[in-house]
Amino acid sequence: MSNPFELMPRQYSPFWLKAVCLISGIAIGLALATTLLMLNGVDFKGIVREFVLYSFISNRGLAQTISTATPLLLVGLASAIVLKLRFWNIGIDGQAWLGAIAASGIAIYDVGDPSFRLLIMACAAIIAGAVWVGVPVFLKMRLGVNEVISTLMLTYVAFLVAQHFLYGDWRDPSTSWPVSVTFDESSERLQRIGFGHVHTGVWIALGCASLVSYLMLAHRFGFFLSAIGLSPKGARASGLPVPIVVILTVLIGGGLCGLAGFVVVAGQEYRLTQYVIHDLTFSAILIAFLARFNPIAVVPVSFLVAGLFTAGETLKAFYQLPLSLILVVQAIILGSVISVEFFSAYRVRIKVSGLLNRQINEEQSRQTSQQ
Amino acid sequence: MAQRNHTTALSLKNVSKSFDQQKALVNANFSVDWGELHALLGENGAGKSTLMNVVCGLYTADDGQICIDGQQLTIPDPQHAGTLGIGMVHQHFKLIESFTVAENVLLSCGDRIGISSIGDISKRAKEAAESIGFSIDVQARISALSVAERQRIEITKLMLLGADILILDEPTAVLTDQEAANVLGLLKRLASQGKAVVLITHRLNEVTEFADHVTVMRSGKTVIDGVPLEGLNRSDLATAMVGEGRDPLESALNQTSSRTAERPRLKLQEVSIKFPAKKHGQERLSFEVFPGEVLGIAGVGGNGQTELTQALIGLIDIESGSITVDQDDLSNASITKRRQHGFRLIPADRAGFALIADLQNFENLALTKVATSDFGGRWWLSRRVMRQNAKALFQSSNIRGGTVNSKTRLLSGGNAQKLLLARELDTEASVLIAHSPTRGLDIRAYSAVHDAIRRAVKNGAACLLISEDLDEVLTLSSRIGVMSREAFHGPFYPSEISRSRIGELMAGHV
Of A46, A240, A290, B464, which has the fewest Cβ atoms less than 10 A away? Predict the structure, then answer.
């Protein structure tokens, strides 16, 4: 009885409370992150300059942020839909790797007519990403294999596949570095749209966001998805097509991740290297959580998270801080948002156990005084 | 048995408790003497279980006093309640499904009675069970046991712990007449040995037949406080339970259903079902259900009722035989296909197999019809139409305690069941499979469910009612079958079989 607090699950948590919790969670996270950065020698002015002014307002920074946001938007969408289904895809990097590898393969071997080359690359990337997550979903549905392990492990396999090609057939013969040849400029690259590095991939990502939003919010598919996510048994007994929805959703998620890989190699790097895909999984899960699995909300959230990366790049350049510090910042924000969410689910009271004892004491003293 | 100083075993005075501003108990009083069987009667949500959970240390009261054997004290947790000799069998058993009986008993009693080996605890548990007339299989896994068998394990646990104040929360809700009588007889015997026994129930029969005293609760308050049963009749109790101005027994006066067509709607031929968790199964079931009639299937729970409902709706496959509806063979059809043929399901496990607790009410009301494009079309899902439809159903079915936009989790059991009936009993319902549709519901919800079933049958549905509540089966059915562990008997017309004969068949006396 030493714990003076009493927790009580709320019968109902109103919208304003959820909103307050989300906003204060982000605020607390940002405050903690600011403290961390200041401890690492970045002054407060510098933080405001890099994180707000540069990342979101200056032309160069904004262009950088949008171009970083492009693949993040795709993987954020992927994460939002599969997490709604309670399918824990931890292998987003792996599926993006496969997308990048497939797109690069099409470019390197010049498959198909040059005027359709980009389209073929995109399709190959989608299929490769879907196949890569298809294995875990098949294993889960047939044999009950936990998807957390299988998707995570396949990420390492995907990276090794990339290394296999880069140290093998795809090594650039002119330099012997483990990178592929660069893609053909006219037919194998996503064109810039005239704003810094921003390329047409951003339209692809926004198009996917609209499509996924339609599916989730205005089509029965999204309704099935949320019902199945909440109770697979109940959904099945109600006659919903559970296996089809599960498989389709997970494959769509994998396809979006593959497409993210395509966007990175065809829009930013113009070739396959060992470093094209990194740290997408964590950001994707962060984005999905912060967006409350709502595909429309994924758009602004991935933009904001991309801003963190832009700021991270300049911190790296000007303050010699490692980029992984930005992952720590993300983790702090996610952690504090989830922690504060607790208050929208529970009511905390200071325990009244003393009350009962006090009354008993009063009662007893009254009885003794009567005697 | 411990030294007793006082005639009153347990007394509660002015106990209040609220959950997140919802008042569950308002100055509730209760007392039970040593050596009596005391009934605690009330509708669902009246506060009976909450009050007893305060006694067994699961909840701490906000206010009020507790006396055990004349001594005023606080009960901070269930362990402390145990040392005071208080033992409770909860309505939802506290057993770990993947453990065996012996492991469960060891887990909850081992420390307190100083036993740490499976062998010893098995022996002691068997002895304890035998001393009160049960035989239990200590090596069986809980998941393979029926509800009735699980209850026996819970009672055995209390015996092992030597509890003197026994509290049973709706112990007969899941039992047949005979089993219920057995358990109540046992409780009566334990009381006569000097224990204080509290029976939480909402069944009037049990109170009038078995209890010494009765306390009635309504809306968190004590309305009848520990009155002897002499001089009280059923209608007094019923009125105290539900309040003035309503006749809770009105639904008991009704006509039985009757078939309205010559051809059977649902036909089972030689259907065999295997039970995943058990070695045996139901072999070669054959019966027909006609439009406009209720075929009631009585029987103790755990003899294949759940499996039969699941096989009928298509959740599990049948081993052999055929299921036909209006001459269409649906033996291997998908759930969706069966639903298109008018199959509707009221499962015993409403939360697991029918309603999705975290969806909003209008979503649950539309759940089974979204696939049939009643709301929008192939390319568009109209939540506006879903809400409109839900609002109409809320009105017509008198669903209370929520709006179409609130979550189904927040509805009480009775209202959730009304919601489910409103969804399942639409105009296209042709085969209704209802499994224990009133289990755990209060009198008002009980009659609302029965009225809905009668209405559906009147509109031409064929209803298969599978229930462990024999009164319910007898009230609604035009023909009655009995499912026992060994076999399926009947169906019989009511004129062909007596209540006691049904009881014998249920208990396996052929």
Answer: A46
- What are the backbone dihedrals phi and psi of residue A270, each rounded to the nearest 5 degrees, phi first? 60, 15
Q: Which among B22, B65, B352 is the nearest to A234, CB-wise? A: B352
Let me know if residue B432 belongs to a domain: yes
| Same structural domain, B204 and B349 | no
Angle at CA of residue B384, ends B379 and B389, nearest 5°: 105
CB of A365 within 8 Å of a chain B CB? The answer is: no
Q: Is B104 helix (H, G, I), strand (E, B) or coil?
A: helix
Residue B85 DSSP class? T
Which of the four pLDDT bands, split at 50, 70 and 90, describes residue B279? very low
Q: Which amino acid is located at B509 in the chain?
A: H
Find where tokens 């919800």 sit: B445
Confidence of residue B362 (pLDDT cuts 50, 70, 90): very high
Q: Identify the bridge partners of residue B345 per DSSP, sorted by sequence position.
A: B433
Task: Specify the pTM.
Answer: 0.76
* Mean pLDDT (whole number) for A126-148: 95
pLDDT digits (tens, 9 = 90+) for B20-33: 667 889 999 999 99
- For the segment A218-263, what is each residue's pLDDT rounded down to a tens digit? 999 999 999 999 999 999 999 899 999 999 999 999 999 999 999 9
pLDDT, position B252: 38
- Token pair recorded at residue A200: 């047409």
Three-state secondary structure readout of B129-183:
HHHCCCCCCCCCEHHHCCHHHHHHHHHHHHHHHCCCEEEEECCCCCCCHHHHHHH
d(C-alpha B178, C-alpha B181), whole Å: 5
Q: Which helix (H) or strand (E) holds A349?
A: strand A346-350
Using a 10 angstrom Cβ sphere, with 0-12 exposed, 13-18 middle and 19 or more buried, the burial of residue A235 is: buried
CATH number at residue B99: 3.40.50.300
Question: 3-class SS at A278?
Answer: coil
B135 and B45 housed in the same domain: yes
Mean pLDDT of B49-65: 90
Of B218 and B277, the one with more pLDDT: B218
Helices H / strands E in chain B, number of each = 17, 20
Q: Do B380 and A218 touch (CB under 8 A)?
A: yes
- Domain coverage including residue B303: 266-356+427-506
Query: Using CB atoms within 10 A of its CB, is residue B489 exposed (0-12), middle (13-18) or buried (19+)?
Result: buried
Is the Cα dihedral B82, B84, B89, B91 positive or negative? negative
* Binary contact (A347, B20; C-beta < 8 A): yes
**Where do we find the tokens 């089509």?**
A219
Cβ within 8 Å, pair B62-A353:
no
Q: Which of B61, B381, B406 sits opposite A220 (nearest CB)?
A: B381
Answer whether residue B272 is part of any domain. Answer: yes
What is the ipTM, given to two decimal places? 0.81
Residue B333 falls inside a structural domain? yes
Q: What is the pLDDT of residue A236?
A: 92
* pLDDT per position as a tens digit, B382-429: 899 999 999 999 998 888 888 888 889 888 888 899 999 999 988 788
* A356–B74 C-beta distance less than 8 A: yes
Do the Cβ atoms of B76 and A238 come within 8 Å?
no
For residue B333, the chain A residue with the least C-alpha distance is A239
B35 in the same domain as B178: yes
Does a structural domain hold residue B374? no
Pick the CATH number of A69-317 from 3.10.20, 2.60.40, 1.10.150, 1.10.3470: 1.10.3470
How many structural domains compose chain B? 2
* Average pLDDT over all residues of chain B: 84
